[in-house]
C-alpha cells in the first residue's frame, strides 16, 4: 500500500478527540498541557508510521482492528509476533495520549493564581475563578431584584453556568500536597455562586471588593463538622418522605431564626430533613395584614426566606402535618446533646446557636452584593464608635411577655457602667432603632455625641402595631439594612444576641456588651405602662418650643452683625456656636451685653463678664445704636 493511498483513506488517519471536562486542575497541569501541545504533532506522526509499517510488512488473511477511530488492516499469519508487539506499542501510545487529552480543559475554566498576598502577617494564596461560556444569557449579571430561588423551583439563569461544578468537590482545585486552608476562591459579582455555596457548606464568605467576592475554608473544625452534618441530612442523605417542617413565625428577625435554628439542630440530631412550611408567607418578604395580600409588593414569588438566603434542603416546601408540628414544638428536645465525630454540641450553647444562625442566613449572591454596596456607600461610620440598639415598637404589646421602653438616658447610663463612655472623650454612637422618636430624643437630649443612624422610614412608638417591622414595605431594602449591622449595644433581643456573636466570631475576640435591662424583670405585662417614654417626647418638644417663644418675647433686641468673640472654654458649648454682639436696653443710658448660644435646642442668654463687655465694645466701637424695637415676627427662631 502506497503512502499516498494510505493517507487518502480515513482508516490511515489517527486522531484523538478529547472530551471536554469541567474538572479543575492544579498549576502543575499547565506545564503538562504545554508539553502535550508541543508533542501532539510528533505523536500523531509516530502513530501513522507504526500503522504504515504494520500494513506494509504483514501478509495473510485480512484482520480488522478498530480503536478510537483508528482502523488498521493486517494480512498474514506469519507475523503474529510482530503484530502483538506493534499492537501493544500502539495501544500504549493511545492510552497515554488519551489520558493526557482528558486533562485538557482549556476554554471551560480560566484559573489565575495569585501568590505573595499577605493578610494578618501570613502569606495567603488566592485563586480567582472566572467561568467562560459562549452562552450570553448565562454571563449576564444577576437581576437587581431576587428571582425567588427556592428549594423546589430550580435555579436562575445566572446559576446555570456553574451548575456542573457541583459534581466535583472544591478540593479537586488544588494539588494533593497543598493545603486548602490559605486559599481564597473568588468570582466576579456578575456571576452567581449560589449553587456552588449551597453544596459546599464548609466554606464561608471571605473578602469582597467592587468587582469580586471570595470564599475561604472554615478554619474552625467544630463549625465545619457541624455544617457538614447538617448538609448531609438536608441534602446528601435526605429522605424527603420523612421531612418535618416549621412555619415561619414572622416575629423579630432573631426570633424567626431561633425557630429555624431549632429545626436544623433537630434535623442533625434525629437524622430527619427539616424544611420550612408554606402555611404563611414570611413578613420580611411579603409583609402582614393588608400588605400580605398584595403579591406584587413581595420580595419574590415564593414569599419566604428563600427570597434572600440559600436553600436549607432539597426537600420541597409544603404543609406541616400534625405530627411534624408536634415534633417542631417539642422545645425540650433542644436539651438533648448532638454528637458529631465524638464531639458534643448543645443547642443552648451560644456559639453553637450562632454557627447554625450563620449557616441558615447565608445570603444569595445578589443580596451579598447589595449589602456590600450599602455598607460602602451608606454606612460611612466614624470610628471608633459605640453602637446602641434601641428596641421599642411592639415589644410592649406582647401581654405577659411585654418588655418595657427605655429612655436614651438609660442606655447612656448602661454604657457608662461598663466604661464605654469616659469623661475625657465624646464617643461616636451608631444608633440602631425601630422608633423614630428615639432618634429625635437622642440628638436633642445629648447633642454633644456624634449620632449616626440609617436614614429610613420608621414608625413612632407602637403605631405600626403587632410585629410590623417593615414600615417602608420595601422588603429588599429592609433586609439589606438589617444585614448591614455590624456592632451593637442591646437590651433583651434575639437579633441583638445573634449580631453580637457574629461580631465576636468575625473578629475573634469578646466584645464589651452593656444591657440596659440588666437586673430588672424583663418580661412583665405591667411594662405596657412605659409606652409614654416614646410618645410623650413629642409632646415635651412642643412644650419646649412654646417656652422658647415666651422667653424670646421678654426681650426686645437689637442685633448687630455677628463677629467671632474669643471662645470660652466651656465644654457644654457646641463647636458651631458664634458669639454675637447683643445688647438689651433695660433702662435709658444703660446697656447690658449678653452672649447667646444654643444648647439642646434651647436659646440661652447669659450676661457677659466685664472683660467680655470690653471686648465687644472695642470691636464695635460706637456703631451700636438703639433703634426702633422690632416686632416678635422679626425675631428669627434658632
UniProtKB/TrEMBL annotation:
One of its GO terms (molecular function) is alpha-(1->6)-fucosyltransferase activity. Residues 523-550 form a coiled coil. The chain crosses the membrane at residues 87-105. GO terms for biological process: protein N-linked glycosylation. Residues 616-638 are annotated as: Disordered. It comes from the Eukaryota. The keyword Transport does not apply. The keyword Transmembrane applies. Residues 626-638 have a biased composition (Basic and acidic residues). Keywords: Coiled coil, Membrane, Transmembrane, Transmembrane helix. PANTHER family: ALPHA- 1,6 -FUCOSYLTRANSFERASE, ALPHA-(1,6)-FUCOSYLTRANSFERASE. This is Uncharacterized protein.
Amino acid at each position: 500500500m502506497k503512502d499516498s493511498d494510505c493517507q487518502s483513506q480515513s482508516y490511515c488517519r489517527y486522531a484523538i478527540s478529547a472530551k471536554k471536562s469541567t474538572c479543575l486542575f492544579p498549576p502543575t497541569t499547565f506545564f503538562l498541557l504545554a508539553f502535550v501541545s508541543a508533542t501532539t504533532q510528533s505523536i500523531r506522526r509516530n502513530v501513522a508510521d507504526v500503522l504504515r509499517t504494520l500494513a506494509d510488512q504483514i501478509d495473510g488473511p485480512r484482520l480488522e482492528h478498530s480503536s478510537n477511530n483508528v482502523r488498521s488492516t493486517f494480512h498474514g499469519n506469519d507475523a503474529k509476533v510482530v503484530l502483538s508487539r506493534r499492537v501493544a506499542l500502539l495501544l500504549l501510545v493511545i492510552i497515554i495520549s488519551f489520558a493526557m487529552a482528558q486533562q485538557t480543559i482549556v476554554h471551560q475554566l480560566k484559573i489565575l493564581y495569585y501568590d505573595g498576598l499577605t493578610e494578618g502577617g501570613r502569606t495567603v494564596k488566592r485563586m480567582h475563578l472566572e467561568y467562560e461560556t459562549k452562552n450570553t444569557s448565562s454571563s449576564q449579571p444577576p437581576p437587581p431584584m431576587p428571582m425567588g430561588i427556592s428549594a423546589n423551583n430550580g435555579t436562575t439563569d445566572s446559576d446555570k453556568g456553574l451548575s456542573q461544578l457541583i459534581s466535583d468537590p472544591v478540593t479537586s482545585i488544588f494539588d494533593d500536597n497543598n493545603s486548602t486552608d490559605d486559599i481564597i476562591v473568588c468570582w466576579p459579582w456578575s456571576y452567581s455562586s449560589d449553587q456552588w455555596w449551597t453544596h459546599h457548606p464548609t466554606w464561608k464568605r471571605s473578602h469582597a471588593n467592587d468587582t469580586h467576592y471570595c470564599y475561604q475554608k472554615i478554619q474552625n473544625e467544630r463549625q465545619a463538622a457541624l455544617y457538614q452534618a447538617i448538609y448531609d441530612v438536608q441534602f446528601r442523605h435526605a429522605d424527603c418522605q420523612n421531612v418535618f417542617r416549621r412555619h415561619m413565625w414572622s416575629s423579630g428577625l432573631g426570633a424567626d431564626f431561633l425557630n429555624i435554628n431549632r429545626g436544623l439542630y433537630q434535623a442533625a440530631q434525629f437524622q430527619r430533613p427539616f424544611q420550612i412550611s408554606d402555611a404563611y408567607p414570611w413578613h420580611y418578604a411579603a409583609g402582614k395584614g393588608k400588605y400580605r395580600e398584595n403579591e406584587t409588593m413581595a420580595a419574590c414569588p415564593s414569599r419566604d426566606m428563600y427570597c434572600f438566603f440559600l436553600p436549607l434542603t432539597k426537600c420541597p416546601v409544603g404543609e406541616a402535618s400534625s405530627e411534624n408540628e408536634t415534633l417542631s414544638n417539642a422545645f425540650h428536645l433542644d436539651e438533648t446533646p448532638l454528637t458529631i465525630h465524638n464531639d458534643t454540641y448543645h443547642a443552648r450553647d451560644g456559639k453553637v446557636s450562632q454557627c447554625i444562625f450563620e449557616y441558615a442566613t447565608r445570603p444569595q449572591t445578589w443580596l451579598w452584593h447589595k449589602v456590600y454596596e450599602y455598607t460602602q456607600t451608606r454606612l460611612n461610620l466614624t470610628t471608633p464608635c459605640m453602637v446602641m440598639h434601641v428596641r421599642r415598637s411592639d415589644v410592649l404589646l406582647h401581654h405577659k411577655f411585654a418588655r418595657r421602653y427605655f429612655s436614651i438616658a438609660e442606655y447612656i447610663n448602661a454604657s457608662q457602667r461598663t466604661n464605654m463612655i469616659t469623661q475625657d472623650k465624646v464617643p461616636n454612637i451608631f444608633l440602631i432603632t425601630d422608633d423614630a422618636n428615639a432618634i429625635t430624643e437622642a440628638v436633642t437630649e445629648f447633642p454633644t455625641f456624634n449620632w449616626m443612624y440609617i436614614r429610613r422610614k420608621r414608625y413612632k412608638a407602637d403605631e405600626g402595631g403587632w410585629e410590623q417591622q417593615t414600615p417602608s414595605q420595601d422588603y429588599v431594602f429592609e433586609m439589606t439594612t438589617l444585614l448591614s449591622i455590624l456592632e451593637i449595644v442591646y437590651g433583651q433581643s434575639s437579633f441583638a444576641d445573634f449580631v453580637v456573636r457574629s461580631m465576636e466570631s468575625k473578629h475573634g475576640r469578646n466584645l464589651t456588651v452593656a444591657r440596659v435591662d440588666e437586673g430588672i424583670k424583663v418580661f412583665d405585662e405591667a411594662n405596657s405602662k412605659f409606652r409614654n417614654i416614646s410618645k410623650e417626647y413629642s409632646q415635651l418638644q412642643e412644650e419646649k418650643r412654646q417656652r422658647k417663644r415666651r422667653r424670646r418675647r421678654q426681650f426686645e433686641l437689637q442685633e448687630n452683625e455677628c463677629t467671632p468673640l474669643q471662645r470660652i472654654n466651656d465644654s457644654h458649648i457646641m463647636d458651631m456656636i458664634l458669639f454675637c454682639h447683643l445688647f438689651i436696653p433695660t433702662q435709658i443710658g444703660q446697656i447690658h451685653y449678653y452672649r447667646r448660644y444654643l444648647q439642646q435646642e434651647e436659646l440661652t442668654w447669659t450676661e457677659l463678664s466685664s472683660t467680655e463687655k470690653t471686648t465687644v465694645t472695642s470691636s464695635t466701637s460706637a456703631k451700636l445704636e438703639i433703634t426702633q424695637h422690632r416686632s416678635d415676627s422679626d425675631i428669627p427662631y434658632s
